[in-house]
């Protein structure tokens, strides 16, 4: 390792001279450098108060690196001190550098000085330039800065308060919040508000208070959002001009008009925080929203009406239109659609005569339908009247062939106009004499005397019973297949014998039953029902019924205290007794009884049957005992014992049969099976797939020969237990061993016992709940079709609350739906109402505006929407 | 104001001096105006909470031509009141316009109350004119902007809020003064006490 050493024996004078030379050289270089670094001259300041930017320029020759120092003049506090690289501006020949202050530049005076630097060498400081603040003693009043600033939500802004000369500073409030402050000078105090929230409609007050809590002064700051227009769309109503619509947040829908259809539009909405542009383009024919039809008129007839209207613009005469006509009558609305070129009249068919209608019309373009136009004004009309429908009439005949012609009042629609009267004509087919009578419109019956014409109706016809059901009296009759006439069912109070108030109903041909329901039916009143054939000939009585809606016994003797009802069949009955006076009836008292069969006779019949049976058995036993030898010979003859060569031991063990390897064994139930013979059917393996459907895989272990144990006349009643392949219990089951034991018990249909093996999944679902109830709930949540979403969520919520909450948060906090994020829209209101925030929207043709060109150049890839924040 | 003029016809030139009914009605209107001005002032202070600690300096914003009170007749006092109310109406109109320019439509209850006060003040002006007009006098009921203090804009929006507050204070003061002056005038005319 080299080291320095002083050797007295060497040449000391040379070394000293060399060292001195080096030092002198360094000194010369340093002296020369000071000569090169120019002290900045003519330092100049300019300000932009809104942006709080200080522009500093100076002359410093060729130097490119400078030290800049900015101090608060009064307190001599360092605000900025950095070395910066600044080139000479080619335009002005000066060095120029910009600095943005955190505080408004008016808050306090700033001192600025600069020196050149080259490496470690620096020039002298320039003369100090002072930017005068508003806290000079000459400005005595309290001031707050910045004045009326507009900033976006989330911005940070520093405010300062210069207290009134002579007053003491108290605090700065942002809204209602007392802020922490920093002293900038004798009278100036600053505070920084971070992450500013949305302002109210009149901005947020920043207020400076003195030490006596008195308001000194303040400013208003607006915190908002850039504009966000939406629903920008252009359409035409007059087929010439463009009506343009857009929305600004919570503002009402705005619209403006351009005289000519440009085809392309761009809406630029600007406020101090930015601008937003929306474009729309379409052919005129694709954006036609017709105006409302005008001057509706009508030409109404009895069953149809022509509705006519006019169009405001001539261009509609060649426009293919589709129009909706909304027709209102009696509170019901129906829509009819018509189409045609220049449509201005439609015919409304199928109207009711003498009916009030109101109508309104709207239309859309038939080709390239855009949207329906506005509804026209409502126009009313009334259809004219025509002859009424034929009344539904009937004739009531008394025993003496007098009677009355009766008919039902016509409804308003049946009358087809204002009823003026009825005309009743009476004639006999045999005679040409007619008798006609004109009756006022409120007449619905007229007496007749048919003694000369009538044919007696059959009073001998058997009366059937009409049964009253929930849907009325149900009447049924036999129909003659050759008869196609309609029917009339007439009914009236059976007690009435003279000019009865009869009611009737017409039944269409082919029907053989009808339910008669009427609000006039009364309990305890017997009604007669008559079925007539209805044809061009005189009605013919076909059948008659009598019936009660509710049968009541009528005790005419006020002293009666009992009433006997005879011939009742078995069943339950309710009896209600009501007292009548001249004023009416009371609510009645009800008693219920049950008629049951006579039970003593039944017991006697059973005992007699048992006695006869016992007697028969005793006789048979006695006879068998007497003839027992004959019986034994006839039914149980002795069987000779077989004689075999050799030593054949007799065994009681069952006969084991081993089918061939890989054979499948099925027991088949045969209908023709004889109970005295057992059957084993061996099915070849190749047949299995056709009808076994894999049963063999579960039934038989084909690796081992299956042993069929055959018991003659022995029935094993034990149930075959399900097989669980993994169950420890399975070893105890004869079915679970590799050697499958099938116990044949005659016609034993053991298929049901194998259900668990046929459907292993089903078996696990069916049995696991018994072992572990909680696990089946888990399964049910995931796969069970009966599990609904609510139970799924709640169960998971109980086990894993976070899983429940997460989706809720995701749904509730989706802010990306444009226009649906409340804060932004609320902001927009502020932006929209403040003239500083929202200059009038500019609607610019794409081709003509230089601003538009600049916007297009700045547009991103999105062809329709672009947001540009200032 | 043209519509206002039409709404209430001027009394006929040869009509008799106002009776207790007219003066009593004017007192009622003035009291109602005073009540509504108080509500409006309260609402504005709630809206701009910094005003609770703000003490306006300076004198009255409304300064009708001085008439020595002790020497003035009842008609003169009412006439002076009428002039002050016209200035108040001028200030209120300025508030409405400037607020509309700066803030647009504000909270509904505040906007409604402002309009109510304006209509009430216009009604009171018509009533006081009806009390004074005779064959030789014709009084205006239009807003008077002469001599009233307007914000210079240097104070910014905060200055506008302070000025608005001062206007509302002034309205409250003159409504109170109107109720008092008209009540005295009413009693001088022999009217009964107005509840």
From TrEMBL, chain A:
Keywords: Glycoprotein, Membrane, Receptor, Repeat, Signal, Transmembrane, Transmembrane helix. The chain crosses the membrane at residues 601-625. Residues 685-704 have a biased composition (Acidic residues). InterPro entries: FN3_dom (IPR003961), FN3_sf (IPR036116), Ig-like_fold (IPR013783), LIF-R-like_Ig-like (IPR048497), LIFR_D2 (IPR040817), Type1_Cytokine_Rcpt_Type2 (IPR052672). One of its GO terms (cellular component) is plasma membrane. It is found in: Membrane. Its main location: membrane. It comes from the Eukaryota. Residues 685-737, 754-784 are annotated as: Disordered. Residues 754-777 have a biased composition (Polar residues). It is a single-pass type I membrane protein. Coiled coil: none annotated. Gene3D superfamilies: Immunoglobulins. Residues 727-737 have a biased composition (Low complexity). It holds the Pfam family LIF-R_Ig-like. Residues 292-386 form the Fibronectin type-III domain. Residues 1-33 form the signal peptide. Residues 715-726 have a biased composition (Basic and acidic residues). Belongs to the type I cytokine receptor family. Type 2 subfamily. This is Leukemia inhibitory factor receptor. It comes from Dissostichus eleginoides (Patagonian toothfish).
TrEMBL record, chain B:
It comes from the Eukaryota. Residues 1-24, 55-75 are annotated as: Disordered. One of its GO terms (biological process) is negative regulation of neuron apoptotic process. GO terms for molecular function: ciliary neurotrophic factor receptor binding. InterPro entries: 4_helix_cytokine-like_core (IPR009079), Ciliary_neurotrophic_fac_CNTF (IPR000151). Gene3D superfamilies: 1.20.1250.10. This is Ciliary neurotrophic factor. The lineage of its organism: Eukaryota, Metazoa, Chordata, Craniata, Vertebrata.
